[in-house]
C-alpha cells in the first residue's frame, strides 16, 4: 500500500519514538540580539518579506459559495474578499470611496455591500452601484470602484499581494514547491470559524520561532501540551517553505497494526511554514493558521490565530481544539516571546539555537539569505 504524506510522516515519527531521537542539525548556532532589535533590519523585513511577498490570509472555503464575502486585515490593510455570482474570486481594499470606512464586516452571503457610515453601496465586483442623495455629489459612479488587489486560490488557501508588483501568477506559483504535499489536505473544505488577534511586545521572528521547536514543551507547556504530545519531530524543506511535524503520545502503537488500518491524517500536528513565517497547523480534523506580522517597531507584532472547521463537521469540536491550542498560545507561548524580547533588549547578548531546534535554525538562515540590501 502506498503511504500518503501523513502516513509517511507517521512512519518517520514512530521510528524516532522507538529510538528516542528527532530530526536534528549538525551544530548549534548563535544569533546576535540585534537580529531582533535593529530598526533598519526591521524596516527592510517589513517591506520585503511582507509587502513584497505573497501573504496567506485564510481558507477559501469561507468564500466558496456564489455571492459570498469575507473580511480580513493584513499588515494593517483592511481587505474584503468576494466570490461574485459567476464564481469569480476578487479582493479589494475594504475602504469606501466616500470617506474610507469599511464596506463589509465579518463574512456572509449577499450580492451587495453597503458602507456602514453613509450607505454607499458596492457590488461584489467592487463597482459603486448606489449613493444615497446622489444629486448632492458631482461625480461619476464608474470612476469610484473599490481598489482591487491581487488574489489567488491555491490548494484551498487564499493568497494576496499587498504591492502592485505582485502578479496573480506570482501568487499562483508561490506554493508550488509544496504542491505534492498540500494536495491531500483539502483546505478548500475548511471555513474560518474564529479569529483571535493579539498585540505582542516582541519581534515578529521570536514569535514565529515559537511554532518551530518542541524543546520548550516539557517546561513551558509542562501541564498543558506535554501530557498529550511528544517532542519527537521531523522536518523537511520545500523551497522557501518548511514542514515540521510532531505526534500525539502513543502513536507508536500503530506500528503493531497493518498500514491499511492507519489513520489518513497524522495523530498530531503538521506545521507548514510559508515564507516569511505564516504557519498552517494541520491536525487530525481541521487546521489553524498562525499569522505573525511586524507591528510599528522592531519590538511590536500583531498576531492572528485563525480556526477552521470542515464543511458539515461539528463546529463545536473544531472550536474545542482551536481553543485548546489558542489558550496555550495566548497564555504560555506569547508571554515567553515577550520575555525574550525584553531580555534581549536588556542584555544585548547572542541567542543560542540548539541542534535540537533545527527548524528555528533553518528559518534564521532563510531570513538572512532572503534580505536584500
Ligand atoms: S464613508 Fe462610506 S458612505 Fe461615507
Ligand atoms: Fe509552544
**How many structural domains does the protein architecture include?**
2
Could you describe the largest sheet, including whether it forms a barrel? Answer: 7 strands, antiparallel
| CATH classification, class level of the largest domain | Alpha Beta
> Would you count the extended β strands for me?
19
Terminal residue distance: 50 Å
SSE order in H/E notation? HEHHEEEEEEEEEEHHEHHEEEEEEHEH
CATH superfamily of the largest domain: Naphthalene 1,2-dioxygenase Alpha Subunit, Chain A, domain 1
Radius of gyration: 22 Å
Give the secondary structure arrangement, pairings included.
Layout: H1 5-19, E1 29-31, H2 34-37, H3 39-51, E2 55-59, E3 68-74, E4 77-83, E5 89-93, E6 107-109, E7 112-114, E8 121-123, E9 128-130, E10 151-154, E11 157-160, H4 168-173, H5 179-182, E12 190-200, H6 204-209, H7 217-220, E13 234-238, E14 241-247, E15 268-274, E16 278-282, E17 287-294, E18 301-310, H8 315-347, E19 351-353, H9 358-370
Antiparallel strand pairs: 1-19, 2-11, 3-4, 3-6, 4-5, 7-8, 8-9, 10-11, 12-18, 13-14, 14-15, 15-16, 16-17, 17-18
This protein binds FE2/S2 (inorganic) cluster (FES) and fe (ii) ion.
Compose a concise summary of this entry.
The chain has 373 residues and is an alpha+beta fold.
Description:
There is one protein chain. The protein has 373 residues and is α+β, with helices and mostly antiparallel strands. It has two domains: 5-54 and 187-370, Naphthalene 1,2-dioxygenase Alpha Subunit, Chain A, domain 1 (Alpha-Beta Complex), CATH 3.90.380; 56-170, Rieske Iron-sulfur Protein, CATH 2.102.10.10. It has helices at residues 5-19, 34-37, 39-51, 168-173, 179-182, 204-209, 217-220, 315-347, 358-370; strands spanning 29-31, 55-59, 68-74, 77-83, 89-93, 107-109, 112-114, 121-123, 128-130, 151-154, 157-160, 190-200, 234-238, 241-247, 268-274, 278-282, 287-294, 301-310, 351-353. The strands form five sheets. Strands 12-18-17-16-15-14-13 form a seven-stranded antiparallel beta sheet, sandwiched between helices. A four-stranded antiparallel beta sheet has the order 5-4-3-6, with no helix packed on it. It has a three-stranded antiparallel beta sheet with strand order 2-11-10. Strand 16 (278-282) and strand 17 form a beta hairpin. It is globular. The protein starts with a helix and ends with a helix. Bound molecules: FE2/S2 (inorganic) cluster and fe (ii) ion (FE2). Residues 96, 98-99, 101, 115, 117-120 line the site of FE2/S2 (inorganic) cluster.
Amino acid at each position: 500500500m502506498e503511504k500518503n504524506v501523513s502516513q509517511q510522516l507517521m512512519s518517520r515519527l514512530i521510528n524516532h519514538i522507538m529510538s528516542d531521537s528527532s530530526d536534528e542539525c549538525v551544530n548549534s548556532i548563535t544569533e546576535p540580539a540585534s537580529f531582533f532589535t535593529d530598526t533598519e533590519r526591521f524596516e527592510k523585513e517589513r517591506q520585503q518579506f511582507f509587502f513584497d511577498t505573497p501573504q496567506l490570509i485564510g481558507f477559501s472555503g469561507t468564500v466558496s459559495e456564489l455571492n459570498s464575502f469575507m473580511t480580513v486585515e493584513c499588515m494593517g490593510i483592511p481587505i474584503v474578499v468576494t466570490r461574485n455570482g459567476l464564481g469569480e474570486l476578487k479582493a479589494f481594499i475594504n475602504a469606501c470611496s466616500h470617506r474610507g470606512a469599511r464596506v463589509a464586516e465579518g463574512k456572509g452571503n449577499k450580492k451587495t455591500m453597503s458602507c456602514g457610515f453613509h450607505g454607499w453601496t458596492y457590488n461584489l465586483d467592487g463597482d459603486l452601484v448606489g449613493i444615497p442623495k446622489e444629486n448632492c455629489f458631482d461625480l461619476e459612479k464608474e470612476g469610484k470602484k473599490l481598489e482591487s488587489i491581487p488574489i489567488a486560490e491555491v490548494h484551498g488557501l487564499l493568497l494576496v499581494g499587498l504591492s502592485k508588483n505582485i502578479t496573480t501568477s506570482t501568487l499562483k506559483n508561490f506554493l508550488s514547491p509544496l504542491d505534492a504535499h498540500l494536495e491531500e489536505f483539502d483546505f478548500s473544505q475548511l471555513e474560518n470559524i474564529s479569529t483571535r488577534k493579539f498585540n505582542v511586545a516582541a519581534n515578529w521572528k521570536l514569535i514565529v520561532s515559537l511554532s518551530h521547536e518542541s524543546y520548550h514543551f516539557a517546561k513551558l507547556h509542562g501541564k498543558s501540551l506535554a501530557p498529550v504530545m511528544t517532542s519527537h519531530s521531523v522536518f523537511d524543506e520545500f523551497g522557501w517553505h518548511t514542514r515540521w511535524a510532531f505526534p500525539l503520545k502513543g502513536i507508536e502503537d500503530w506500528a503493531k497494526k497493518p498500514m491499511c488500518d492507519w489513520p489518513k491524517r497524522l495523530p498530531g500536528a503538521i506545521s507548514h511554514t510559508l515564507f516569511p513565517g505564516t504557519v498552517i497547523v494541520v491536525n487530525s480534523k481541521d487546521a489553524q493558521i498562525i499569522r505573525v506580522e511586524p507591528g510599528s517597531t522592531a519590538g511590536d507584532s500583531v498576531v492572528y490565530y485563525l480556526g477552521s472547521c470542515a464543511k458539515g463537521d461539528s463546529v463545536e469540536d473544531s472550536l474545542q481544539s482551536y481553543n485548546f491550542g489558542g489558550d496555550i498560545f495566548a497564555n504560555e507561548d506569547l508571554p515567553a516571546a515577550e520575555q525574550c524580547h525584553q531580555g534581549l533588549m536588556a542584555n544585548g547578548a547572542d541567542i543560542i539555537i540548539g541542534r535540537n531546534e533545527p527548524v528555528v535554525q533553518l528559518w534564521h538562515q532563510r531570513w538572512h539569505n532572503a534580505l536584500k540590501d
